[in-house]
Amino acid sequence: MDEDDEMPKLSGSALAALQDFYAEKDTQEKRFAAMKAAITKNDKLSMDMFSEDWNASQFWVPLQGLVGYRSVI
């Protein structure tokens, strides 16, 4: 087998990150399935079904806002 024919391998940390990603994806799919079931049964939805990870969120500010903020400081 040539060097180019070898199967690519992930590092341990990359594999762990991929496993975390798939675990989170599975969790989200289960939550959405539960919400779909609730809608189908005409159950009331609550805001508890929706969450936001503020540590993972990114906020984008237009350049004009940054220039204005800089002038205040």
Please provide a written account of the structure.
Helix content is 53%, strand content 0%. The chain is mainly alpha-helical.
Radius of gyration: 22 Å
Note the overall shape.
Answer: flat
Helix content: 40-55%
Regions with little confidence, pLDDT below 50 for 5+ residues: none
Individual helix count: 2
- Which structural class is indicated by helix and strand composition? mainly alpha
Order of helices and strands: HH
Profile the largest sheet: none
Number of strands: 0
Mean pLDDT: 77
Distance between the termini: 63 Å
Q: How much β-strand is present in the residues?
A: under 5%
Briefly say what this structure is.
The radius of gyration is 22 Å and the shape is flat. The protein is mostly helical and 73 residues long.
Task: List its traits.
single chain; about 70 residues; 2 helices; about 0% strand
Secondary-structure blueprint:
Layout: H1 12-40, H2 63-72
